[in-house]
Amino acid sequence: MGECSMPYLLSNEDVAQALDMETSVRALESAVREWAHGNAAAVPRHNFFAPAGREGEVFQFGVMSGGSKNDQLYCLRILDDVLYYQREGDLLTREKYCIEPGTYCGLLLLFSTANGELLGIMPDGIIQHMRVAGETAVGVDILANSDASTIGMLGSGGMARSFAEAISVVRDIRGIKVYSPTREHREEYARDMAERLDIEVQSVNGPREAIQGTDIVCLCTDSLRPVMSAEWMEPGQLVISVGGGGGLLDVSGDMSLFQGFFAISTDDLASAEDRGGGYMIGYSYFAGQPQDFGAIPQEAWWPAPEEHNRGVTRLLDVMSGAATGRSSREDILHLWGGGYT
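^ thats the sequence. predicted structure below, dont judge the formating
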């Protein structure tokens, strides 16, 4: 009888030592290319919602997974969150925790498809940022102008840092302008990223100022409301949304100013049950009545799938040759950077 080896149990510190952003981007590029040609697959996200223990909070349990034929690997991601919503002036954000604010639970289980062995168990804290940012960088490489060298960044948190680092793998980024509502946060971001990337990073006083004159616009905020106007955009820009509001766009105004909308895939975009306010990302199921989910603000709900996905081109189809990406240097394009692989 053969021996069964124990899986590796890794910490976030172990992951940070073993994985850098360039390695992550190149691995994701390979995975997306395999997916585009039928040699990899991703199972769309499934969510379970129920009322949480405290008023105004909602329990969310999420699973998503995917694997590669050539790598002979399959990974399952598990999320365990309590959601709540904060309003401060015009700002509306979605916050989450596990057990108590400031602590989180996200796990990755890695399996071999060659023999079914569980190879590793690890938290998703580091990998999650690398995955979403790295996959977005794959989209940037396809959609941004080849000489794009500047980023307009709205947001100064962890994802804003990961996005700047990942995009720098696929483009020669020479400057960043950053805005977020808290001055201390954006100034700290500017100092940290200037040192990390060895480029000029400027903290500015408003969102429009951050966007003006840049090639790639990153909307890396947790806002459930639009954070920029379409009328601010300039020819040739690629605008990337990450936010968790009700839809793909963190942009208000005239959407006809965009020449194209893109996502890696549309399989994971708002489907399954409508529980009063609308839909949720992924295949979402609710244990409770509509009134049990009254804490979820209208801005957090998504439109119906057929409305939500209308006009969105899959980057999988661009990579396989079935669809076109950028057709002109002047095109203004939108990329949903939510992460699928």
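The helical segments are 12-18, 21-36, 125-143, 158-170, 183-197, 207-211, 305-308, 315-320.
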